Structures are given as C-alpha cells and as structure tokens.
Amino acid sequence: MSYILGTNLNSNKQVKIALTRIFGIGPKKAIQVCDQLGLSNNIKVNKLTKYQFDQILKIISQNYLVDSELKRVIQRDIKRLISIGCYRGFRHNAGLPLRGQRTHTNAKTCRKLRYVSIRS
Description:
Helicase, Ruva Protein, domain 3; RNA-binding; Rbsml_uS13_C
C-alpha cells in the first residue's frame, strides 16, 4: 500500500485509477497527472519509483485543491451562501435540494445527508 496526501492507494491498481481515491481527483485529473509525467496508462502503482511518487505529489499539490483544503473551501462557500441569505443558502440550511429538483416524493437522499441533530 502506498500513501499520497494521506490517502491509501492500492498497489495492484493502475495509477490513473488509484489516484481517483484522493478526494478532489477524478478520472480526468488523474489522466492529466499521468500525461504530465509521461506515465503509461497501464502502469501499476507498485511499479512506480520514489522519484515518480514525488513528482505526482508535487504536481497534485501545486495544481489542484485536494483533500482537506478542498473540503474547507466547499464548507466556506456553503457558509457564505447561508450568510448572505440567498435562495441556495436557504435550501442548504433547510437540507433541501438546491437545483430545482422535485421535493414532493423525492429528496429523501438530500434529507438523509442532513447532519443537524435536534436533541438537546
């Protein structure tokens, strides 16, 4: 097992697939990182050298917001929406869908994700 930015990467998977385990790195960004380093699409994580790991870490940390930084930015943006009192902020605060989805029968997922506890 290899660690990049505190995320455990499976050694038997391809690099482009293993990088998607990092929060904020999707398939497209993982392929971009591999292309910048000139890595093959089929290379596995356990075949990487220490230098290649360092280069991957350098590229990701310089070019992308990932992991706790990205989570902090998302939370800050949500708090800003709530504080200015806009429609999206109100919907965030109420735990309802933001983008016009139906709420009569659906929106159970959105309500499940709400983490407000009412106990006192």
